[in-house]
Description:
The complex is a heterodimer of chains A (about 450) and B (about 260). By secondary structure, chain A is an alpha/beta fold. Chain A has helices spanning about 35-50, 90, 115-120, 130-135, 135-140, 155-160, 395-400, 405-425, 430-445; strands at about 100-105, 110-115, 125, 165-170, 180-185, 190-200, 205-215, 220-230, 235-245, 250-260, 265-270, 275-285, 290-300, 305-315, 320-330, 335-345, 350-360, 365-370, 375, 380-390. Chain A has a domain at about 30-55 and about 70-290. A ten-stranded mixed β-sheet of chain A has the order 2-1-5-7-9-11-13-15-17-20. In chain A, strands 3, 4, 6, 8, 10, 12, 14, 16, 18 and 19 form a ten-stranded mixed β-sheet that branches. The model of chain B has no long low-confidence stretch (mean pLDDT about 95). The interface between A and B is medium-sized, with 23 and 31 residues.
Amino acid sequence: MEEKPRIVVTRTRRPGAATRDFVFTADMLPSDGALKDYRLQAWKTYASLAMPTTREEAWRRTDLRGLPADSFRLPTPEALQGLAPIPADLLKPLISDQHGGQIVLTPGGASVEVDAALNRNGVIFTDLKTAERDHPELVRKMAGQIVRPEEGRFAALAGALSQNGVVLYVPRGVIVEQPLHSVLWGPGTGLAHLSHVLVWVDDGASLTYVHETASPQQDAASMHAGNLEIRVGDGAALKFVELQSWGRKIWNFTHARAQVGRDGNLDWIYGAVGSHLTKTFAEMDLDGEGASGRMSGFFFADGTQHLDLDTQQNHQAEHTTSDLLFKGALKGSSRTVWQGMIYVAPGAQKTDGYQANRNLILDRNARADSIPGLEILADDVRCSHGATVGTLEEEPLFYLQSRGIPEKEAARLVVEGFFDPIMQRIPFEGVRERFQQAILDKMAADENQ
Amino acid sequence: MSQLLVKNLHVSIDGKEILKGLDLTVNQGEIHAIMGPNGTGKSTLAYTLMGHPSYEVTAGEVWFKDQNVLELEADERSRLGLFLAFQYPVAIPGVTVANFLRTALNARRRAENPEDKGVPIPEFRKLLLEKMSLLQMESAFAGRYLNEGFSGGEKKRAEILQMATLRPEIAILDETDSGLDIDALRIVSEGVNALSGPELGVLVITHYQRLLNYIKPDFVHIMLSGRIVESGGPELALQLEERGYDWVREKYENGVAA
């Protein structure tokens, strides 16, 4: 006998509908500048798009209902006054003994230092506002070409209203020996830090560039939305390190894409340890024949952090090679999502694509989602992927403890070992040390934060 | 002189009693062998002495250097001077042999003195190379991930390397001979013999007499159904070699069953 279930509705749930929205208005658009038209177009796109909801595939696992969108204001030119200054540690060179140049972006301002020899070679490394004034043609050629406003509401918002950013151009054939470094420092509460970073390594040129985003721990929310557009020309090479260590009240949204030309090479290292919530789209387009790219991701979430990383390896041409390895650890009741896609365009034969995501869950309440994907429209390709979610096992810990290593230290050793394959891919000791320090800090942190 | 004293030890795993009143005394400087058929609780004894969390001690005592061992965590037991050479050492991916051993040595130093800065790298390197040559290991071995992709012989040598580096006072070798060919068995045994002496007590757990041709025990114990039923000198092992375990079973198990 079948019993008819009695349905009782105790509450209605509107999945993903944000309750609060931004209060930005069109009159906040700059009235002049090289990017005036682009910004206006981006604004129109922004205005036409609603806040993403969990009904959209890309946002299915990241819920923005808690985003206090109406609390965010654009920083004024005097915004930095009275806010925490940037810690000296963040200004230290991460890669060699010295920088070829360093840019510090702060709310409402920027400071730029560049080796004069670089300027003589035609290298441009400056903040967005200065670049709009001094290199309008170049900036117009770079902005909105690789990350388009239509890609999402945050891309459109950052495009329209970005107040800060970096413009980095390396002319044809120029080999920049000393690494360039920029830091976006975002102190303050109730602020929307909107940034736009434009990088173009022209044909045959080569560069190592580190871009960091960070803020102090504060007691109320701020947000960051950033676009990152990278072009690696034919035969050019870029080593790019991106480090995210936002404070724990920051809602962080980024759209990053790198296009790699014929026989160009990109080595992209991504590290994320901060923020309250992060949603990142990181894509690599291998557009020219023989282009190759590697993406190496390090992330470690704890407390109630939520990190949602979307990666895409797009093989648009023949003989292109991509290799992605993202490794993440989780503590507390944190949540991470990695969703990766290898796309091979029709006719992109002889491509070789690989992606792997490994996750290590250190506490019962943490959760990692790992979603690999392949979309292959050519027939002579080699593509594979791997995804794992594991926990800290008892036997290795007991083994280490039986050698006199206390439990906490044993766990740290296992976690360091877990991340070692990523460390092996990072040719910069300073960056490795930064990641190792993050592991130490996170492993030592009290879980009740 | 340190003494490991086991009194009336009862141990269960998942509610099933494996050790049923085991008594044993091992002094520093002595070599003991525990022999017995499979499934008799030999490895349970090894894991329990080292403090594996899955083994539940339901009765009995274990004392070492005036300390109630059963109250100590595995890492504390190790720092007190106990060592277990595992029958199946687990792989620790991403952690090199050298990094692991340095961490283990530093954990000892820091337990003595919280301010300790750790063993200086050159000193550590010298120590490690010296111990590795004792076991006929290539120096490249130090840079490999611990137990990952090691052959059976490499795993056992790595266990003895750890023992040589950590210098325990009582070492338990759990089936260290299993899976070894004759050459590896000889190298491992020579390593153990080089380390043994008045400073080291050894408890060799083995199924076969073979290992005891290389590591000469002062005392031999026969274990059956969770207890030590016979103890004697080296001649007891030879007796087992000749006659097998059947006579022991007949003598004790039948009695228990009756």
